């Protein structure tokens, strides 16, 4: 949580952290391992060493990209806002005050529902919707955001009145 911790405001604390799921990256990791194994098999047969190296390196790059996506995804709910950061080269950071979040939607497949992972789509007032992919326990995270919004709402009403 390097990015999230570096952006905390005075008096702000982390209430909940969302973590990426290894299950969400399962197909990419499986494909990468199959490519590396196929490269080793072709290499041991000795028929085409160049294609063996190509398959192995492609699998290695895909595996590295999967791990990099897992390491660079950060999602946190503080007592004042929702902070998300993901990506290394094309980095996307989202910081929305709790009062500005208009919708928080969960998208998951049948497998994602069984294994408890999915994408969280956050839309804020005057901000485009942002999808945070492959988060573990998205339903619980959404529940905590809604509870934090409900706790913040009376404070906002007192300030207005």
TrEMBL record:
Cite the InterPro entries for this sequence.
Answer: YdbS-like_PH
What UniProt keywords apply to this chain's record, in alphabetical order? Membrane, Transmembrane, Transmembrane helix
Coiled coil stretches, renumbered: none
Q: Which domain of life is it from?
A: Bacteria
Could you tell me which residue ranges the YdbS-like PH domain spans? 70-136
Q: Which residues cross the membrane?
A: 29-46, 52-71
Is-annotated flag, keyword Transmembrane?
yes
What name has this protein been given in UniProt?
PH (Pleckstrin Homology) domain-containing protein
Q: What is the lineage of its organism?
A: Bacteria, Pseudomonadati, Pseudomonadota, Betaproteobacteria, Burkholderiales
């Amino acid at each position: 949580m390097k990015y999230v911790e570096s952006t905390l405001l005075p008096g702000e604390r982390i209430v909940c952290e969302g973590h990426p799921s290894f299950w969400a990256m399962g197909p990419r990791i499986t494909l990468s391992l199959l490519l590396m194994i196929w490269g080793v098999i072709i290499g041991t047969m000795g028929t085409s060493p160049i294609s063996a190296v190509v398959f192995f390196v492609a699998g290695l790059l895909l595996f590295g990209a999967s791990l990099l996506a897992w390491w660079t995804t950060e999602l946190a709910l503080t007592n004042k806002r929702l902070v998300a950061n993901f990506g290394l080269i094309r980095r996307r950071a989202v910081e929305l005050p709790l009062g500005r979040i208009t919708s928080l939607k969960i998208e998951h497949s049948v497998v994602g529902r069984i294994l408890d992972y999915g994408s969280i789509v956050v839309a804020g007032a005057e901000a485009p919707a942002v999808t945070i992919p492959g988060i573990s326990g998205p339903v619980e995270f959404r529940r905590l955001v809604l509870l934090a919004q409900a706790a913040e709402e009376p404070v906002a009403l007192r300030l207005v009145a």
